[in-house]
Amino acid sequence: MENREKVLQIKDLYITFNTFSGKVHAVRGVNFDLYKGETLAIVGESGSGKSVTNKTIMGILSKNANIESGEILYNGKDLTKFNDKQFTKIRGSEISMIFQDPMSSLDPVMKIGKQITEAMLVKDNISKEEAKKKAINLMAAVGIPEPEKRFEQYPFQFSGGMRQRIVIAIALACDPDILICDEPTTALDVTIQAQILDLIKKIQEERNISVIFITHDLGVVANVADRVAVMYAGKIVETGTVDEIFYDPQHPYTWSLLASMPDLDTDASDELLVIPGTPPNMIYPPKGDAFAPRNRYAMKIDFEKEPPMFKLSDTHYAATWLLHPDAPKVERPEALMRRIENKKGKAGGK
């Protein structure tokens, strides 16, 4: 991995929001790298800081947000120092984003074709005829039937899944290096979800672009991502390859996420794990490990001191005191172990 080209580096990023109730500590010391041609999934519950981190990369944070410290390095430049004019040059052309609700991403009174060609005409400096031809090819590439006819239609004439395909086409219009997908399948039914996930994977492989895939659902990343970063309370608590996270998770929060997730192997009699309690109030970030109050394996030190990132392999790290040499050995949740054995069995049978 280290020999591959890094296209993005996030270093010790801290972001807060000023609110009437106080200062919200949304992102607290996040670090990760994104490599050329890979898909990195960032997973966590609502409010974990995953979307805030990626809106910072795009330069679309709200006015009450503050980047307290840290760096976002892209092509040798620190994006945290960029102004709106500098972001306008790279946003959409070099770094692009797909949002979760296609209806709010599209202008309801503008023809689809114009919405796709708009960015091309501004950023690519090409003629309207060239832009139209490129847009129709893009529409075909993302699976829109009769693209020439659909080019002249409005968003209300498209289904939810087709609108999301159009949003993907717009995101790809200027051939970005990085594509950020923010919960791109949340508003869609399961069958359409699978189609959109397959489409994103296909585009990523064909164009060799780097993808950051944000989701609260670990289930959707299994076939899409190369690596996974698990976020909780503004921090990355575990990071590893898809196999490391799914077959050998080390953080109790990752255990809980996996064990609480139904899949096709889940039997009606199987009991899914429920994560007790609620995420912490980030106006008052907890001392120690933020997951400790919800963690049945928590030790005294978890409430007193924040755990460091323990290295398990060159690609696998987890921030939990359970990995300390002096920590007691614990059994992982039964629901999780059953799930891992099922997955290993299926993988071995292929």
Mind sketching the topology for me?
Elements lengths: L5 E14 L2 E14 L3 E5 L6 H9 L6 E10 L2 E2 L5 H7 L4 E4 L3 H4 L6 H12 L4 H14 L5 H4 L9 H13 L5 E5 L7 H18 L2 E6 L11 E6 L2 E7 H6 L4 H8 L50 E2 L5 E2 L15 H15 L2
Parallel strand pairs: 3-8, 3-9, 6-7, 7-8
Antiparallel strand pairs: 1-2, 1-4, 4-5, 9-10, 10-12, 11-12
What can you see in these coordinates?
- The chain is of the alpha/beta class.
- 31% of the residues lie in helices and 22% in strands.
- It has an eight-stranded mixed β-sheet, with helices on both faces.
Our measurement of the CA-to-CA distance between the termini, rounded to an integer number of angstroms, reads 27 Å
Instruction: Give, in spatial order, the strands making up the sheet with the most strands.
Output: 6-7-8-3-9-10-12-11
What's the order of the H and E elements?
Answer: EEEHEEHEHHHHHEHEEEHHEEH
Briefly note the structural class of the backbone.
alpha/beta
The radius of gyration is: 21 Å
| Shape summary | globular
Q: How would you characterize the largest beta sheet?
A: 8 strands, mixed
What does the average pLDDT come to? 91
Instruction: Let me know the number of strands.
Output: 12
Instruction: State the helical fraction.
Output: 25-40%
Please indicate the percent range of residues in DSSP E strands (runs of 2 or more): 15-25%
Tally of individual helices? 11
Low-confidence segments, ≥5 residues, pLDDT <50? Answer: none
